[in-house]
Amino acid sequence: MSGTRQRPGWAPGASSASNSRRVLPHLACEFLALGGAVFADAPIPERLHDLRLAGKRLRYSLELFRESYGPELDTILRTLKKIQSALGRISDCDATERLVRSTGLADAEGGAELLHAIELDRSETTRTFLLRWRRFFRSTEAGEVWARALGDHAPGGPDDSHSSADLQ
């Protein structure tokens, strides 16, 4: 699962199943590589935001091919939705803090308490996200499992025998 591999593009003459097998595994690996980078240092807002956007890109791409895949895709989509929910809440905390500071509310009565509440929510949600990420992707092979499932389970894929338990 290398972040330096170039993602293949859509082949105009190929079927949607063939294209999904070629491209979707790479999107999954890119998303998981970004998630791994979050753990390289402290989870800074820019990295979390980039991960959130990559998760959206992956999720929406997968949803386009929902009919082409079996229950394995539903498992992946549920995982992505949970992760996106936590990342969205962290982003909301960041945006709310910026709004409070830019409007002068931070200096108004109760402003310090409001900023403290926002920071507590952000910290707790970030902690929950990190725990959830570790639980979902406890092994370094998680990206390969997703890539295999996305490549192999498309119509005409080489192996339709993987179970959804492989993705948890």
The tally of strands reads: 0
Order of helices and strands: HHHHH
| Amount of helix | 55-70%
End-to-end Cα distance, whole Å, is: 18 Å
Query: Number of helical segments?
Result: 5
Shape field: elongated
What is the SS-derived class? mainly alpha
**How many strands, which pairing sense, and closed or not: the largest β-sheet?**
none
Gyration radius (Cα, Å) is 19 Å
Return residue spans where pLDDT drops below 50 for at least 5 consecutive residues. 155-168
What is the typical, i.e. mean, pLDDT? Answer: 80
What can you see in these coordinates?
The structure is a single chain. The protein is an all-alpha fold and 168 residues long. Helices cover 67% and strands 0% of the residues. It contains five helices and no strands. The protein is elongated and about 60 Å long. It starts with 15 loop residues before the first helix and ends in a 16-residue tail after the last helix.
